[in-house]
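pasting for ref
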Amino acid sequence: MGNSFKPFDHYASNFTEEQISERATDFNNLMQKRRTVRQFSDRAVPLKVMEQIIAAASSAPSGAHKQPWKFCLIGSTELKRKIRAAAEKEEFENYHGRMSKEWLKDLEPFDTDWNKEFLEIAPYLIVVFKESYGVNQSGERSKNYYVNESVGIACGFLLSAIHQAGLVSLTHTPSPMNFLAELLNRPKQEKAYLLIPVGYPMEDAQVPVLERKSLDEVLIKYL
């Protein structure tokens, strides 16, 4: 059986080299302003905005186009409260025995601890699940490929779309995260990958003074 193809819609086919360079620079300048934020406002965000952000994330490439992800969008006050309580329980254990001294020291510049009030304050939480395998309507399993890589790329798209929309986010990983599948009643093939609060920053929100590695430190050229 042959594959089905259609012409590639290369929307930028008529861009000049100057336009391409300008667009690349503009996008880099935009993304350089992205910061992880822990101080969220409870200001409402339209549901349609969140839907568009997640749709953009779901456009990411994946192994054999299996798209092994689910994005659970949570705006329920009661459910956010339960997630916070469960996350803080795990985080308390992390900060009081699970984490090494080195890990705790590396976290000091961020002034963070086991209290995660942003899980209730942010208007939305996105829980990203990875699907270890697929299940069709008949209950039959199918193999997914490069699951971690595919979901990681989709999360990159997600964070970029959030920033592009003018919102802020935090990549939260209260390990272990099994409680999320339980609270959200997700099937056993789905494993929690990231918990991401999304919204506007507080008016007086602050972020640590950090420097990203320079381009020379991360780019190795073979020309």
